[in-house]
């Protein structure tokens, strides 16, 4: 009998039903089994992957199905049966062995399984959890083959209860936006340290002053509710000030990691269409050249006069913007929940005019 190892990659869509996933895997497997005459060694030679003594060249997980009857021979005064030997060491990260079990009449009665694993990578308890979750998946799909694979519950009842306890962190918070709560803290402890980054720090008063300065600049650029501001900067005091400035202006912020590929950043900006993109002189060179970004330093946007922005957003204007945000977004939330068939919190859903 000629045997060979097939290298197969399975892409799983969490929204697909188990039936669809099984059909896709079957098609891939049949196509692979149609080429059993290509030795694995030849495949490695042609693909020439990066080689390492720490892992296998093309795959690290192996599935072995032993779908044959154990050969046993009985002679007068002699019985011959296979001898199971202990596993000396793992050749791969994980090996899953499945063996069909037959009764005395050679009728199949089930499937037994074992897992061989690299102890340098996995704890015994982790592999035991893998096995339990595999059984859970098999039980779920045998009950309902149409279940989306991404909705299969892998946690046990005890694990779900533990997570519920760990996440029982609900706390009653007085009404108000994040900006409103921050402003109250500024009034309570203006000289307390608000943020620390490396060797730099800002008090609440200093932080608030810089955030107000930048917020006024953003408002002058027509930033407001239902608009986005891109933040193309690495972790820094400027990033924290910019986040709060965007919130004070009533907008949402769009994180743009300077370390991401330029194509990705261009795509995100083209899709989200931020009104303004903020960056720093340190991070500007890491953003795509085509991005029109305003540099933000300690004093605020380059070119903005110090003093103009130090003034807090006028109380009347700030209250009006906050009221607009609360009213608009509460109605949007309620309408969205109504479309989902879920009763909204706080009363009957309102309508939102387009």
Map the helices and strands.
Layout: H1 18-33, H2 40-47, E1 61-66, E2 73-75, E3 78-80, E4 94-102, E5 108-117, H3 124-143, H4 157-166, H5 178-188, E6 193-197, E7 200-203, H6 204-220, E8 228-232, H7 237-248, E9 252-255, H8 262-272, E10 276-279, E11 293-297, E12 300-301, H9 315-339
Parallel strand pairs: 1-4, 8-9, 8-10, 10-11
Antiparallel strand pairs: 2-3, 4-5, 6-7, 11-12
Helix pairs in contact: 6-7
Question: Can you walk me through this structure?
Answer:
This protein is an alpha/beta fold and 354 residues long. The chain has helices at residues 18-33, 40-47, 124-143, 157-166, 178-188, 204-220, 237-248, 262-272, 315-339; strands spanning 61-66, 73-75, 78-80, 94-102, 108-117, 193-197, 200-203, 228-232, 252-255, 276-279, 293-297, 300-301. The strands form four sheets. It has a five-stranded mixed beta sheet, with helices on one face. The protein has a three-stranded mixed beta sheet with strand order 1-4-5, with no helix packed on it. A two-stranded antiparallel ribbon has the order 2-3. β6 (193-197) and β7 (200-203) form a beta hairpin. The model is unreliable at 302-311 and 342-354 (pLDDT under 50).
